[in-house]
Amino acid sequence: MLLRRFASTSTLPPTIRQLLSSPQPTSPETKVQLSGWIKSVRRQKNVTFAVINDGSCASGLQAVLKPDATPHNLTNGASVRICGNLVQSLGRGQLYELHVEAVDVLGECNPEAYPIQKQALPVEFLRDNAHLRARTDISAAMLRLRDSVLRSLHSYYEAQDFHYVHTPILTSNDCEGGGETFRVSPVSSSPSSGQSPDSSVQSEFFSKPAYLTVSSQLHLEALAASLSRVYTLSPCFRAERSQTNRHLAEFWMLEAEWAFIDHVGDVCHVVEETLKNILRCQSENALLWKDGDGTKLRSLEHASRPGVPWTRMSYTDAVKELQKYHASSRVGFEFEPAWGRALQSEHERWLSEQLVGGPVFVTDYPSSLKPFYMRANDDGQTVACFDLLVPFIGELVGGSLREERSSHLVEAIQRHGLKEEEYGWYVDLRKYGSTPHGGYGLGFERLISWMSGIENVRECIAMPRWAKRMLL
Ligand code: 4AD
Fold first, then answer.
1. From ligand 1's centre to the CA of 197, what distance in Å?
2. What is the CATH number of the domain that holds 147?
3. Which residue segment(s) compose the domain that 378 sits in?
4. pLDDT tens, 215-226?
5. 116 CA to centre of ligand 1 in angstroms
């Protein structure tokens, strides 16, 4: 049997990407073995060409087979193990090809029934087939992009002496105070168990309500008070009902927090450095951007140019600019901009796409618009915070200095109508060796959307969840 011809080794056999990036000198005696899925088959009179990919890279590898050695069930989507010689290709478009000696079809795939056909498939169809979606070239490229972005993030933070830490998913508070938390309880204490509402708190698994985290920030602050510089990438959950192309109910947030920082501009600086470093490292662009008209890609390239600092402007100035435009333009905005009102998505996009033409940090929002933990500015009206707005996405990052003065913090907790007893531990951090500190949170799917040109964050995560949609 074919499989016996390949003696098992203690290490994993090379992937197609590994083979192609450092091909061994080949001779007719030098054989390679690889496994993957058939992406296309072209049967000709004297030869069969099949592209095989194991997902390790975008291109895959062309396999060349003799017609009489081509199994009838070698079809698009079938999984195979192939043995042959890797040789330089005379054909266009590839450096190497595999001259196949033996092929095993491990898993057949009926080409008539297989939902993942070669032609471009509608987005909705792929959402309905989320379990098969990763088999499309675009989705696989997006997943590899997530992976390479993460690796460059880790190496950037390592170089800055940040520690990668893990924070809880189950929490007792709503960090953002936005009321978008999912509450968690064991199945046995659900309303159908026949308990009265009063008895439900007593029967809570943790003796108090538990929620899925909306942000790791508060826990990160506790760890930054020991390790100085920490970051995490964590799933976050928000019972967000908006059906937009930038909101998910479950998304991943990169959050960093560090001690001994006095100016919100310094937090912006770290965010800018982090992002420029990532933008330089991306690898899957060619595939992901092929359908774009180039506008978004040019704006992204402009943003990643070293030595060109990103614009910063205060919320107050941003509102003035928005008002000027609203008053002078025939079209204006749907929502009238006014100091003290939240910036709407249309405002955010106008600021980054029209006014600035690139990423812009909007700083020092009114305290009434922001969560309780942000450090109060001396003007008594605003807080030391920022949102980073980027073209075609809007808000990508939110961050701030944190209120490190316990009396100010307690006052803010009260002003926001929060229960003091629930934040006792958080106030404690300010009682014992408090430090000026700050940090930020970056929506990972929005970053992938910005970097790839994929328009909706639902296509920037393998198995998206949003209101009324959780298929698997
Ligand atoms: O602005 P947000 O709500 O900030 C925080 O949660 C802070 N505690 C973070 C921190 O300072 N450590 O969220 C941060 C980012 C947003 O800028 C956005 O990119 C992303 O998280 N985000 C979402 N992404 C997808 N779907 C959602 N429903 C999102 N909500 C926020």
1. 32
2. 3.30.930.10
3. 133-185+205-470
4. 999 999 999 999
5. 33
